[in-house]
Specification:
With 142 residues, this protein is mainly alpha-helical. It is built from 10 helices and no strands. The longest helix has 15 residues.
């Protein structure tokens, strides 16, 4: 019995390993695969912020492209990523904060834009500029 459990454990991919695979796929430009994963299992929306901390630019760009595709499915699903993105708004790396603001702008819900507004006070000028651009495009006054 223990041998069967051990074999099953070996076959199970950890969340960390799956997150790495998703990042690798985005890095290779295979966004469609990740779109399919998000559509099939909504728990991946909560991993969005974790994908943004990847140092590879192609991964972070892939997340933006991913959300451009997902927004076509409807705003209710993409809004599931807001909390994971909000967790990155306090990241010590300004580029992570900027990427999170960008994806919140793509989501574009009232809640997402309210979080973008908070970034007008960010200490990094580029993050502030991204936030202002998003709010201007959304027709917000700041």
């Amino acid at each position: 019995m223990q041998q069967v459990k051990d074999q099953q454990a070996e076959k199970t991919v950890s969340d960390a390993e799956l997150l790495q695979v998703m990042a690798d796929f985005l890095n290779l430009g295979h966004v469609e695969n990740i779109v399919a994963m998000y559509r099939q299992d909504h728990r991946y929306y909560d991993w969005t912020g974790d994908l943004l901390i990847d140092e590879r630019f192609a991964v972070r760009l892939g997340v933006s492209v991913l959300f451009e595709y997902l927004i076509e499915d409807g705003p209710d699903d993409v809004a599931l990523a807001v909390s994971s993105l909000v967790r990155q708004l306090g990241n010590k790396k300004s580029w992570v904060r900027g990427e999170a603001v960008n994806v919140l702008g793509i989501i574009g819900s009232r809640e997402a834009l309210d979080w973008v507004k908070t970034m007008i006070a960010d200490p990094d000028d580029q993050v502030v500029e991204v936030a202002r651009d998003i709010l201007q495009q959304a027709g917000e006054r700041h």
